[in-house]
Amino acid sequence: MSAAVLLNVFIPKGVFVFIASISTTLFLFMWSLIILAQMKYRKEVDVAGQENQLIFKMP
């Protein structure tokens, strides 16, 4: 909360855009990590030959 107040004091006209762009960037970064983890997991499952044991099949 105090960080928002300080940001509002130092950059009053651009604080909303600043916070929105940081949250959007972090959102995209987290989804990128999820996608990379899923791709690595699927690759390891394919190498181990266990793709028939998966409950949720990829289309």
Automatic annotation (TrEMBL):
It is a multi-pass membrane protein. Coiled coil: none annotated. It is found in: Membrane. Residues 3-58 form the Amino acid permease/ SLC12A domain. The chain crosses the membrane at residues 15-36. Keywords: Membrane, Transmembrane, Transmembrane helix. This is Amino acid permease/ SLC12A domain-containing protein. It comes from Fructilactobacillus carniphilus.
